[in-house]
TrEMBL record:
PANTHER family: RIBOSOMAL RNA LARGE SUBUNIT METHYLTRANSFERASE YWBD-RELATED (PTHR43042:SF3), SAM-DEPENDENT METHYLTRANSFERASE (PTHR43042). Signal peptide: none annotated. GO terms for molecular function: methyltransferase activity. GO terms for biological process: methylation. Coiled coil: none annotated. This is 23S rRNA (Cytosine1962-C5)-methyltransferase. InterPro entries: PUA, PUA-like_sf, PUA_sf, RlmI-like_PUA, SAM-dep_methyl-trfase, SAM-dependent_MTases_sf. It comes from Fictibacillus halophilus.
Length: 398
């Protein structure tokens, strides 16, 4: 049985919680440091003892838990989890029935009503990601609910929280049948090799599905493509399948070469027709400028924060400079796909960064289209940070 604790919300945070802001921050609640046990059920009240919401305690970055319900009578039990999961699964029915796409997100944290938990589906296997020890304490309820609602071949989990200051990196496999390694999934007909038992990242970022399809179907044919921060080369493969003349993938990580070769191979493409370069993107830009290389399509999808030997990159600060370098090696009337998953700024600021980069290089541009998170990455309207993805297709005019 879970412990219940009543806590008072500081006056300036009452309004936010009333309108449905789901994150419980350390500053918002009096005496939150008295709560010691992860997974404790917290009931929140204002100064006049009016009920505001009920949730769980769990340390997740600056958060100290998530509100799960604004109904004081609702219990956080097996039935609660089953209800939330059921709704989430119904919301993805189209994807469950889509033969061409077998990898997608089934449950997206606060967007589906339970902050701190995501569930991804890969061809009948499920990967649960727990963002705090608090939500992890509900593991039995979540797994029982999932098995009640869908046919599960096997379950894996990723623990994205530290216990006593240490991240636990034990076996990801939980139960059922083990997935083949690699497991081949489909996305709009593109194949991806994924590894469910190999650390936090499985080999493909599911939130870029619509962007990959758009590149393949509308932007790649006959083009030379530069894919920077390429990871396993998912964008390169999409472009190659769309008839790109050639793709060049650049990533710092050694593993990116074999991983990218593999993604080409599982799509019946010859990776030797493409360049896969293991290098710091910032060095590569210098090299490309020196050699006067230029590309018809340049894809920029850096991490929010990265440190290499010579550079520290922070998207919030350095994106305009990165983009300015990309502009220099993009053909006139070429297209730059600028993407950022940084949660500290939104689309408006991202577009200001784009404007400033083009100004800096003395070039002009035209925005062709924009993408945010796909439908399966459901967001919570009061929780803007959760709506992190911004992708802009930009034509360089001069
Ligand atoms: N665009 C990819 C995902 C990028 S993940 C996709 O759609 O699949 C971020 C990648 O950036 C990682 O693979 C990491 O190795 C790489 N990276 C980080 N800093 C880098 C740098 N300075 N130069 C090149 N690659 C870098």
């Amino acid at each position: 049985m879970k412990k219940n604790v009543r806590l008072k919300v500081k006056p300036s945070y009452v309004k936010g919680l009333k309108t449905g802001y789901p994150l419980i921050t350390e500053d918002a609640v009096q005496n939150i440091s008295n709560v010691k046990e992860e997974g404790t059920i917290i009931e929140l009240f204002d100064e006049k003892n009016v009920f505001l919401g009920k949730g769980y305690y769990g340390k997740q970055n600056k958060g100290r838990g998530w509100v799960l319900t604004q109904n004081s009578q609702e219990l956080i039990d097996q039935e609660f989890f089953e209800k939330k999961l059921k709704k989430a699964i119904n919301h993805r029915q189209e994807l469950f029935n889509n033969y061409e796409t077998t990898a997608f997100r089934v449950f997206n944290g606060e967007g589906d009503g339970i902050g701190g938990l995501t569930i991804d589906h890969y061809n009948g296997y499920y990967v649960l990601t727990w963002y705090s020890e608090g939500i992890y304490s509900f593991k039995d309820e979540v797994i029982a609910s999932l098995k009640e609602l869908v046919k599960v071949k096997g379950i894996y989990e990723k623990k994205r929280f530290a216990v006593k200051g240490k991240y636990i990196d034990d076996n990801d496999f939980v139960e059922g049948e083990q997935a083949p390694s690699p497991l081949i999934v489909r996305e709009n007909g593109i194949h991806f090799a994924v590894y469910l038992n190999d650390g936090a990242m499985v080999g493909v970022f599911l939130d870029q599905r619509d962007v990959r399809k758009t590149i393949r179907d509308q932007y790649a044919k006959g083009k030379t493509v530069l894919n920077t921060f390429s990871y396993t080369g998912a964008f390169s493969v999409a472009a190659a399948l769309g008839g790109a003349a050639k793709t060049t993938s650049v990533d710092l990580a050694n593993r990116s070469r074999s991983k990218t070769q593999e993604q080409f191979s599982v799509n019946g493409l010859n990776y030797e027709d493409h360049d896969i370069i293991v290098e710091d993107v910032f060095n590569y830009f210098k090299y490309a400028v020196r050699k006067e290389l230029s590309f018809d399509l340049v894809i920029l999808d850096p991490p929010s924060f990265a440190r290499s030997k010579k550079h520290t990159f922070s998207a919030g600060k350095d994106y305009p400079d990165l983009l300015a370098q990309a502009i220099q090696i993009t053909e006139r009337n070429g297209v730059i796909v600028a993407s950022s998953n940084c949660s500290t700024f939104g689309m408006k600021k991202f577009k200001e960064m784009i404007a400033s980069a083009f100004k800096q290089t003395g070039s002009t541009y035209n925005i062709l289209e924009e993408f945010k998170l796909p439908q399966d990455f459901k967001t919570h309207k009061e929780f803007k940070e959760g709506n992190y993805l911004k992708v802009v297709f930009i034509e360089k005019l001069s």
